[in-house]
C-alpha cells in the first residue's frame, strides 16, 4: 500500500489488522472524524468516557476469541423450565392475561438462550452511555417501547414499580419460599408441585421469581435472588405494573455496564441483564441487510418468537467485520430501523390493528399516549 493511501486509510479507520495470508482489513470505525463529532444531547456536558467504543484508538480482538463466559447470564435452555411453565400456565393463564403478561411469558417456550456474541459485542461498540443510544451514521438509534411491545406483547401502560412502596402494600403472609435453594435447577426442584396437585400461591410466586430472574432480567449470579420477591407478589396479586418500561430501563442499564466493561484491559466478564432482548432487536433491524434465514414456528402471536429463529448459529471472530459494516451501512434512517411499523406485524391485536398512522382506533389513544409521552423509568429492584 502506498504511503499516501496508507495515511488516508489510517485516518479513516481505527483498527487495521492483517490475516495469516497477509491481506489487510480494518473496521470499527469511525464514520465521522472525532474532532467533528457532534453530540445530540446538548443539555449534558461532553464526557470523554462516554464516547462510543468505536472511537477508541485501541481494541484488542483477542479478548473476544473466547466469549463463553461473557454471556453466562442468558436465559437457560427452555427444557429446564418448560414443564413447570406448562403446569403453572394451566392454572394461572387467565390471571396472566388480565395483567397483560401472558404473551410475554410464552417467549420462555422459545430459544431465548441462543445468541451471537459477535453481533452483540459489535453493537455494544456503538452504544453511547451519555445519550443512551447507538450512534449509527444516520444518528441516534435505540430500542423503544414500541419495540418492546412487538417483541414481548407488553403494553406501555401500568404502575411504576417502586420496590419500597410495593413492599409495604403487597406483602403476603403465609408464603413459603425455600431460600437456600437458589440455583435455577435447585429452585425449580424445590418449588415445583407434583402433577395433578393444585398450584398454590407460594408455587406461583416462586415461579414468577424464577421467570423474572432467569428469563427476563437475567441476574449475573445465575440464581434466584430475594429482591424479585416483592415484584413476584405484586404480579401474583394482579397489580398492573408497567413491565415494558421496567424492562426497557433494565436494557439501557445493562448496555451501559457492558459498554463500560469493554474498556477494561481484561475485557468484559459475565455480562448480564436482558441482553436476549438486544439480540432479538438486532435480529429485527439486520434481518433484511444480512438475509437472516427465518424458520417457521408454532403459532405464537409475538414477533419475539419469530425473531428467536433468526439468531445466527455460527460464532466466528471474523463476523465482527460483517456486523460492523452492517451498522455503518445505516447512512440514513430506513424502515429496517423501524421494523415493527408494518401491516403484517405479528403481535397482540391491540398493536396489529392500530399501528398505521391515520387508522388508529380512538380507544387506543391511551396506549399510544403511553408510547409517545415522556416518563421517568427505573430499573432497580431494591
Automatic annotation (TrEMBL):
Domain Aminotransferase-like plant mobile: 100-283
Coiled coil residues, start to end: none
UniProt cross-references to InterPro entries, sorted A to Z: AminoTfrase-like_pln_mobile, MAIN-like
GO biological process: meristem maintenance
Tree of life domain: Eukaryota
Classification via Pfam families: PMD (PF10536)
Protein name: Aminotransferase-like plant mobile domain-containing protein
Organism in which the protein naturally occurs: Cajanus cajan
Amino acid at each position: 500500500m502506498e504511503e499516501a493511501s496508507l495515511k488516508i486509510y489510517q485516518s479513516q479507520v481505527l483498527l487495521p489488522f492483517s490475516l495469516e495470508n497477509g491481506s489487510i482489513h480494518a473496521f470499527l470505525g469511525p464514520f465521522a472524524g472525532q474532532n467533528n463529532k457532534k453530540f445530540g444531547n446538548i443539555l449534558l456536558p461532553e464526557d470523554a468516557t462516554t464516547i462510543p467504543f468505536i472511537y477508541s484508538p485501541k481494541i484488542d480482538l483477542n479478548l473476544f476469541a473466547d466469549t463463553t463466559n461473557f454471556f453466562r447470564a442468558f436465559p437457560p435452555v427452555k427444557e429446564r423450565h418448560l414443564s413447570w411453565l406448562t403446569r403453572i400456565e394451566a392454572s394461572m393463564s387467565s390471571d396472566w392475561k388480565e395483567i397483560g403478561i401472558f404473551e410475554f411469558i410464552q417467549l420462555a417456550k422459545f430459544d431465548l438462550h441462543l445468541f451471537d456474541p459477535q453481533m452483540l459485542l459489535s453493537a455494544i461498540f456503538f452504544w453511547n452511555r451519555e445519550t443512551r443510544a447507538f450512534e449509527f451514521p444516520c444518528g441516534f438509534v435505540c430500542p423503544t417501547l414500541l419495540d418492546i411491545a412487538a417483541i414481548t406483547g407488553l403494553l406501555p401502560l401500568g404502575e411504576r414499580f417502586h420496590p419500597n412502596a410495593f413492599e409495604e402494600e403487597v406483602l403476603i403472609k403465609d408464603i413459603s419460599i425455600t431460600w437456600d435453594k437458589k440455583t435455577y435447577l435447585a429452585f425449580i426442584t424445590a418449588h415445583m408441585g407434583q402433577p395433578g396437585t393444585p398450584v398454590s400461591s407460594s408455587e406461583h410466586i416462586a415461579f414468577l421469581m424464577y421467570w423474572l430472574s432467569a428469563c427476563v432480567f437475567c441476574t449475573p449470579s445465575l440464581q434466584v435472588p430475594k429482591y424479585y420477591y416483592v415484584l413476584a407478589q405484586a404480579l401474583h396479586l394482579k397489580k398492573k405494573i408497567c413491565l415494558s418500561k421496567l424492562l426497557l430501563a433494565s436494557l439501557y442499564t445493562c448496555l451501559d455496564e457492558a459498554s463500560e466493561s469493554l474498556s477494561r484491559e481484561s475485557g468484559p466478564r459475565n455480562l448480564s441483564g436482558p441482553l436476549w432482548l438486544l439480540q432479538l432487536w438486532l435480529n429485527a433491524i439486520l434481518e433484511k441487510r444480512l438475509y437472516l434465514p427465518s424458520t417457521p414456528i408454532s403459532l405464537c402471536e409475538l414477533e419475539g418468537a419469530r425473531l428467536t429463529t433468526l439468531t445466527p448459529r455460527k460464532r466466528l471472530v471474523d463476523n465482527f467485520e460483517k456486523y460492523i459494516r452492517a451498522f455503518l451501512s445505516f447512512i440514513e434512517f430506513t424502515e429496517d430501523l423501524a421494523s415493527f411499523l408494518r401491516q403484517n406485524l405479528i403481535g397482540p391485536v391491540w398493536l396489529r390493528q392500530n399501528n398505521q398512522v391515520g387508522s388508529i382506533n380512538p380507544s387506543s389513544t391511551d396506549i399510544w399516549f403511553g408510547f409517545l409521552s415522556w416518563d421517568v423509568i427505573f430499573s432497580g429492584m431494591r
